């Protein structure tokens, strides 16, 4: 599993992290540029590749955690008083959304290396000591993450779950 993950993810080496979206608490990272029209014919970047993360993850620089997957449940203003009505699922309405947006706007993160582990996790090493680390942590049947190949409307998925790996054609 480890070698297959590393080899598959090596396709994205050299690409930049260009955009991110979110569906509930699943982060959808976009790498490279691939534009398609939306419902009103405006073009938007879906990335040459996308990674949908459904397992815990973090982005670090050196010894500092910059963004963690559970930041999605925190208010965007870290100094704000507790708000019992805080709704984390609103667009750009939580700390994770805010920090990811700032990171992509302020840094040019280019993938330089991929590492994988025996449990379906991986690390993407970017330039300037930035790193995305995933660490599947469920022992039940669940999807951890998937790589989407959006080039030339290929729409191929490489899915890693508790049961192993499967690919769509």
Plain-language structure description:
β1 and β2 form a beta hairpin. The model has no long low-confidence stretch (mean pLDDT 94). The protein has a six-stranded antiparallel sheet, with helices on one face. It has a five-stranded antiparallel sheet with strand order 7-6-10-9-8. The protein has a two-stranded antiparallel sheet with strand order 3-4. 12% of the residues lie in helices and 40% in strands. It is built from two helices and 13 strands, in the order αβββββββαββββββ. By secondary structure, it is mainly beta.
Overview in brief:
This protein has helices at residues 2-9, 95-106; strands at 17-23, 26-31, 35-37, 43-45, 49-53, 57-61, 64-68, 111-116, 122-126, 130-134, 143-149, 156-161, 164-167. With 169 residues, the chain is mainly beta. It has one domain.
